[in-house]
Amino acid sequence: MKKIREYLNPSGLELHYKNDMLDVTLYDEIILLTDDEIILSKDNKQIVIKGCELTLLKLLDSEVLIKGEIKTIEL
Amino acid sequence: MKNTYIIKIEEKYFKRLLSYHIYINKIKKENNYYLLYLDSDNYQKLNKLKKIYNIEFVGYKGLIKYKYILKKHYPFFIMVILGISLIIFLSNIIFQIDIKTEDKEIRELLKEELNSRGISLYKFVKSYEDKESIKKDILNNNKDKLEWLEITRVGSKYIVEVEKRIINKEDTDTKPRNIVALKNAIILSIEARNGSIVKKLNDYVKKGDVIVSGEITHKDEVVDLVRADAVIYGETWYNVHVSYPIAYQEKKYTGKTKTRFGLTLFTKKYNLFDKTPYKNEEIKETNIFKHQFLPLKLSFEKVFEVIDEDNIYTVDEACEEAVKLARSKILAKLPKDSKILSQKKLKIIVNNSTIDVDVFFKVYENITDTIEINKKLDDITKEGE
């Protein structure tokens, strides 16, 4: 049941990397946005994405799509 | 399609938007600015920050785009709708009724019949069913006059084709009659099918003289009354007086030509792209567009400049022209099977600006007329006794 509830109403942070784009869902806030670093937060923890020429392609309430040369993702 | 607002914002301001919780469906980075695609709620939020962050509205996507275009260009759309409505309205109005008959009486009869049934100028066209019913109605009301009737609608024009009913009275009427002279003449030809010929060729007859009699005689006694039938041609005479101007105008081409477009709306004509039209001109017209229903035409015109040159006839020339005019006058008066046998100028008077000529014509024409014999055979026999 817990798995089904989680599938229907996910609550955890998810990161999907596809076609040189990183899709981050269910984040809380964007803390920093620069060309080579983007910091997001989730439950008072930080997700640090580093790379070159990082830009946002989508910025929604719970989803952000990042494009650019992503080098590291720190959780 | 989802309604989307597109705005442009400088790169330096974009990052500051994050703190306002504005959500962006799509972000496009250009040189030093961003194009943001927002929904309506987020656009309203962003619009409040317009003055602070130098935000520029670029456009719409989705249904709202068409709503915006309609709002912006509404006078144009209203005009288009009005124009189409006007064309539909005018296409359903009768602008012309062409009754194809030479018979004046039938033409007037049809005009009245159509008018009383709502087919007249500047009224609405009838439906096919109504038109057919009107056609049948007219035919039923005029059985003795109309053989066949067809009403065709070509756009805003009705073409009425009609066949007159010919009741051949000659076949049914058997009353005895005489063939008499229609006017004073010398008989040139007699073609008798029935009756007794009482005049010879080259006889002079006065109007009303019997030429072929319906009374058949034997030994000076009338033995039968028949319906005389004959066609008589005779020589008749006419005096025609003509007054002809000595001065005349002759149309001459100057050699100057030009081309232009002409627009005809109803009966009014407009010359397009021709600011200096010739004073006198002759036009050779080629239609580019002619509306099937409406009196609207666009044509290409080749225009020739002409001038009217004043000339004066000599007396002989004027006299010749006057005789030609007299000939055309007399021919217009005569039936088609007539011909002029000879002509002679009787009197010529030259005035200041005109010449008066009297022309005498000898004409070959049909002089057949009929008169019924109202007496009975018994009465004629008694009169003889």
Textual characterization of the structure:
The complex is a heterodimer of chains A (75) and B (385). With 75 residues, chain A is mainly beta. Chain A has one domain: Immunoglobulin-like. In chain A, 9% of the residues lie in helices and 64% in strands. Chain A contains 1 helix and 6 strands; from the N terminus they run αββββββ. Chain A has a 6-stranded antiparallel β-sheet with strand order 1-2-6-5-4-3, with no helix packed on it. In chain A, a hairpin with a 3-residue loop joins strand 5 and strand 6 (63-74). Chain A is globular and about 40 Å long. Chain A starts with a helix and ends with a strand. The model of chain A has no long low-confidence stretch (mean pLDDT 86). Chain B has 385 residues and is of the alpha+beta class. Chain B has helices at residues 11-14, 40-47, 50-53, 63-72, 74-91, 104-116, 128-141, 169-172, 315-333, 377-384, and strands at residues 4-10, 26-29, 33-38, 56-61, 96-100, 146-154, 157-164, 177-181, 185-194, 196-197, 204-205, 210-213, 215-218, 221-225, 229-245, 247-265, 268-272, 281-290, 296-312, 339-350, 354-366, 368-372. In chain B, the strands form 6 sheets. Chain B has a 5-stranded antiparallel β-sheet. In chain B, strands 2-3-1-4 form a 4-stranded antiparallel β-sheet. A 4-stranded antiparallel β-sheet of chain B has the order 10-12-8-22, with no helix packed on it. The longest helix of chain B has 19 residues, at 315-333. In chain B, 16% of the residues are buried. Chain A binds chain B through residues 30, 33, 55-61, and chain B through 15, 18, 21-27, 29.
